[in-house]
Amino acid sequence: MVRPPPAAPEGDADPTRDLKSYVSRGETPSMGEVIERLHERGVHTGLGAFSPPGTRPPLVGLAVPEDFALPQGYVRHHQATDDGQRIEAILMFAPDFQLYDAAKQPIAMPADRVVPPELAPPGLPIRRIVLPTPTEPAKPGR
């Protein structure tokens, strides 16, 4: 996508701290466009710390109820959709955790650390989360 360079900052705006340096007066870019502009200028703090919407889809895995006691090595992973909806927590392996089989051989861990049904802890109800449908964006003037 080719777009004209943003207008020069207004007044004494500090380009590292003021969105006026990335959005011209009267312009209404999407949040993804703002984040892309920040990244293009090397800003990766504040809003620039986020990935543009749609570039990092949520992980889908086993639902883990808040009242389920997790054994060592398992963690709840909380997420949100790009439009801010909370997603039910999924079960993941802790970063440095390793499972072993009955012969004390390491079990291959999933690259994304999402726990598959066959490696779920005993007693966990096996149910995959369902991602919420995106909310319709607000129409200008409403």
| Assembly context of the chains | single chain
Which structural class fits the helix and strand makeup? little secondary structure
Percent helix: under 10%
Morphology call: elongated
Overall pLDDT: 84
For the record, the count of structural domains works out to 2
Uncertain runs are: none
Secondary-structure element string: HEE
Largest sheet: 2 strands, antiparallel
Q: How many individual helices?
A: 1
Task: Give the tally of β-strands.
Answer: 2
**Terminal Cα span:** 28 Å
Taking all Cα atoms into account, the compactness measure Rg is 21 Å
Q: Which strand order does the major sheet show?
A: 1-2
What percent of residues are in strands? 5-15%
Q: What is the topological layout?
A:
Elements: H1 31-40, E1 74-80, E2 86-93
Antiparallel strand pairs: 1-2
